[in-house]
Amino acid sequence: MITEILRLKHGLRKSSPLVSIAAAATPTNVYLLSAGRSAALRKIMISNRNAANADILIGTGLGASFAQVIPQVFSVSSGQDLEITEDQIPDIEFFATMTAQSSAAAASPNDVQIAFEVEEYQGPTG
User: Fold this and answer.
1) To which H or E segment does residue 7 belong?
2) What is the pTM of this model?
3) C-alpha–C-alpha distance, residues 7 and 119, integer Å
């Protein structure tokens, strides 16, 4: 039911900047949601420049208030890039800033980088 509703909604496609996750198991803001809006994640782009494989969790909140929203854990091998498109991402509507955390991270140039493409809606009812 929710999937059908989100597919009927029409919003604006927006992209986040490329964000570096420099600390492992520490949520990092990726897409700052505009006030009074909601959004659905449409594309995830990850570049793992770390020597270790990385598992990426996507949700909302920072620190101890992080809550995983997207049920999948996206695994990216060391030195690899991963692009996940909307047909592989569940239709979940976000009402807060989107965050991500990685199991492996380090300072640039060995960091894990991530960017989102979202569909942003005017208010929770579209």
Assistant:
1) helix 2-8
2) 0.87
3) 11
